[in-house]
Amino acid sequence: MKKVLITGATGFIGRHCLPLLSERGYEVHAISTRGSLDASSDIHWHKVDLSNSLQLRDLMADVMPSHLLHFAWYAVPGKYWTSLENIRWVQSSLELLQAFVANGGERAVMAGTCAEYDWRYGYCSEKVTPLAPSTLYGTCKHSLQIMLDSLSKQTGLSSAWGRIFFLYGPYEHQDRLTSSVIRSLLMGERARCSHGNQIRDFLYVRDVADAFVALLDSSVEGPVNIGSGRPVVLKNIIQKISDKIINRDHIEFGAVPVSSDDPPLLLADVRRLTKEVDWEPKYSLDQGLDETISWWRKILDDDAPKK
Length: 307
Known about the structure:
Elements: E1 3-7, H1 14-23, E2 27-32, E3 44-47, H2 53-63, E4 67-70, H3 85-102, E5 107-113, E6 123-124, H4 136-155, E7 158-164, E8 166-168, H5 177-186, E9 191-192, E10 199-204, H6 205-216, E11 222-226, E12 231-233, H7 234-245, E13 251-252, E14 267-268, H8 271-276, H9 285-303
Parallel strand pairs: 1-2, 1-4, 2-3, 4-5, 5-7, 6-14, 7-11, 8-10, 9-13
Antiparallel strand pairs: 10-12
Helix pairs in contact: 1-6, 2-3, 3-4, 5-7, 5-9, 7-9
């Protein structure tokens, strides 16, 4: 049986991968520092600090996974771009990778980011667009990708690197764009936004998880963009949300300043994902937003004081 070790298993993307991995026949071993999501499921949970080398080596020797899916990283909104935690996560990720290879690991897929690209180009292709990260976060992710690629060539490890673009959905941090707008409007508050003219590539989180599991289950090597390949103006997403909640009057465009280096366009070339991995999104933007709004309604209802 294929045996996968997944890090960041309780995180935004990782939690959505768990049932998908089980459905594909994997014995799933999930790492979390906060305990299991569901003790009654068939997931094998391991409470491990990935920065603890001894814990990590003991776990890898005990589980001996054939596959590795690595999401764990420092991801606090507004802080992760410049945090020195990025360097620590490169170190922990390399130790994870070395322990995986030392214990017979066969295939590893790790999560990268569109922040590895030179954003001045706008349209990002794995084989064409220059890689010139402008943040510590992007630099650290790209450095790890280079080391993963070199290690794979030297040891024969099969590996791929999923470059994530923009995503949204249930369990997203409340300070991210779609979640902050949805929460504000559901609570009857004003949603403060930038001008909203930026064009981005958004993919629903359940689709992101499905794409990563498909990539893991494939033999595709190297960087693969994880996105929709469909441009959408941020203002249009925000207006869609307000129309669904029937609260357009509470949108404040231009209330949040935009940095001078904020790119007008960031779009993924998804030909590797669609043609080589043979994967297509299952959710439309409307379907994803509907599910996300429903999830936030439940969260806010559950948190509301009971009369």
